[in-house]
Amino acid sequence: MEQLTFETMIAVFEEIFGGLLFWAMVAVAVIVTLAYFYVLIRDRSMSMRKFLLAQLSMPFGAVAAVAFVMVITDSQLRDIGGPIDLIVLLGIAVVGAVGTAILVYTAQSLFRSARQS
Amino acid sequence: MEEIKGLQASRRAFMGLMAGGMATAIAVQPAKAKKIQTKARIVIIGAGAAGTSLANRLVDRLEGAVITILDPSAEHLYQPGLTLVAAGLKPARYTQSQTSEWLPKDVTLITEGAAAVDAVAKTVSTTGGKVISYDFLVVAPGLVLDHDAIEGFSLDLVGRNGIGALYAGPEYAAKTWEAASKFTEEGGVGLFTRPGTEMKCAGAPLKHTFLIEDIATRTAGKGKHEMHYASNDNGLFGVPIVSEKVRMLFHARGITPHYSHVLKSVDATRKLATFATPAGDAELEYDYLHVIPPQRAPEFVRQSGLSWADKWTDQGWVEVDMKTLRHLRFPDVFALGDVAGVPKGKTAASVKWQVPVVEDHLIAAIEGREGSAVYNGYTSCPLITRVGRAMLVEFDYNNNLTPSFPGVIAPLEELWISWLMKEVALKATYNAMLRGKA
Asked: Does B9 fall in a domain?
């Protein structure tokens, strides 16, 4: 590939997931991230209790992310053929895990803050 | 109260950070060069991958140029997707779009084909009887599939009698899958061919073979299918190192190669294919046959005296310099894509690298100077070896491998990431190329 611009990257992701799903996912990611920053700024501290549950949810997020990408791309785990494939796979798993942790932490903070604080 | 103030400050800071980030992203976009004033009349024959991409790039560079593009087809085809359609992985519409939606406003689209080119008088006659004068001509009409050259074969056989022909277009690629899927379920003898002429994407016959073998083994299980691949010469791919790799993969997958076998005729009722070989005709039986016909330049190219006189005489590709794609006898004429008479280079990936070269030389000619861009024969072939894996093979005129990601994506390794590139990233890159942006 000669040029890999931001515009091309967006087009690639739209192609992978379909325009609607991609932008819906972007919207969800942005909303969750903003909500996360909101609860962090509001609470002025991390709650280790909430963080524990968030950490426990990480493996599920990792597996779900990998499964999602596999289904979307007509692939299976047996298609992993070399080191780079493993790196990409682990990358997807990490993104899934971190994303889920943030989601779970934020959800707890938003919905349980009244009782706990 | 203090806390709320702090919160607002943080919010403001956060928003500021976001805005700053966006502003930076916009600011780092490459600056646009000043447009070149010209009254040049540029005619592009063909609104396929090459013609469309070039039209978009020229409109960005030139002010006042009269650009006319000729194409009889209202439909634009994403041809790299046909192998996926013929394996049931994508629907036919995955490859279809409207020609007009990709073209810039400032270009005149004439929905007629070219009938003749007079390179001395510098005119193009259309099939509708129009005569268009040009200062510069870009010949990019693609190629013609010569189905009639195979005796006993016609396109209405595709999809029935175990016959497939994915090159013939989206509907035929979908019908090819109808025939191929029946074969994958029922088992039998699969026979895959390629023509003796130059062809677009020489990897596609192999991809179809690998995909159908993979799907067949998954569907009906091992041992129910016998797979044969008929190659036109002594190799399996034009690049020797890739050919060897494919030979090893064929061996591992139980696909029998038949060298120097060129499909000559088909007997659809007896399910018998006849091949021309150095030792005379050879017959092979099949339950599923994949036909790829000989490929040639359109008739008007050959009739207009644009073709090589001493090379590819049965095929008629345009006589151009292999580095600049400029016609060797008519300097105002360029050729792009499938029709260009250069070794290799009949793929969308080649087009992506050819178009900026022609753009450079054409604009240099308008400005009265010499262009400097050189096309090195780059071609890329994400050679699918199964559903979920491919080899990202990239090479040049000299059969050198030219990996885009050396040390990261190995060209001769069957990788999932290469499959991802083919299945998901390629079309987006292709579309960006059509718009002149990649």
From this structure: no
Same domain, B189 and B74: no
**At CB < 8 Å, which residues of chain A contact B?**
1-3, 5-8, 11-16, 37, 41-42, 73-76, 78-82, 84-85, 88-89
How distant, in Å, are the alpha carbons of A89, B29, B30, B433 from that of B34?
44, 15, 13, 21
Sort out which chain B residues have CB atoms less than 8 A from A5's CB and list them: 432, 437-438
Using a CB-CB distance cutoff of 8 angstroms, which residues of chain A are in contact with residue B413? 81-82
Judged by DSSP in three states, B101 sits in helix
Structure tokens at B154: 């016609």
B47: in domain: yes
Q: Is the ipTM of this complex over 0.85?
A: no
Query: Which pairs count as long-range contacts for B129-132, CB under 8 Å and 24+ apart, including other chains?
Result: B132/B43, B132/B68, B132/B70
Same domain for B356 and B269: no
Secondary structure class of B123 (helix, strand, coil):
strand
Residues of B in contact with A1 (CB under 8 A): 404, 429, 438
Please report whether residue B323 resides in a domain: yes
Per-residue pLDDT of chain B (438 residues; tens, 9 = 90+): 344 444 444 445 544 555 555 555 555 555 567 899 999 999 999 999 999 999 999 999 999 999 999 999 999 999 999 999 999 999 999 999 999 999 999 999 999 999 999 999 999 999 999 999 999 999 999 999 999 999 999 999 999 889 999 999 999 999 999 999 999 999 999 999 999 999 999 999 999 999 999 999 999 988 999 999 999 999 999 999 999 999 999 999 999 999 999 999 999 999 999 999 999 999 999 999 999 999 999 999 999 999 999 999 999 999 999 999 999 999 999 999 999 999 988 999 999 999 999 999 999 999 999 999 999 999 999 999 999 999 999 999 999 999 999 999 999 999 999 998 888 788 888 988 998 877
C-alpha A116, offset from chain centre: 26
Which residue segment(s) compose the domain that A29 sits in?
6-116
**Helix or strand or coil: residue A86?**
helix
* Among B residues 386-405, those touching chain A with beta carbons less than 8 Å apart: 386-389, 404
**Cα–Cα distance between B430 and B151 in angstroms, integer?**
35
Question: In chain A, whose CA is at the least distance from the CA of B26?
Answer: A6
A to B CB pairs, distance under 8 Å? 86
Question: Which residues in chain B have their CB less than 8 angstroms from residue A79's CB?
Answer: 386, 388-389, 416, 419
| A80 part of a folded domain | yes
B417 and chain A: CB distance < 8 Å anywhere? yes
What total number of domains does chain B contain? 2
Among the listed residues B212, B222, B175, the one whose alpha carbon sits nearest the alpha carbon of residue B190? B212
pTM of the model: 0.88
B436, B53 in Cβ contact below 8 A? yes
Q: What is the nearest CA distance from B22 to chain A, expressed in angstroms? A: 12
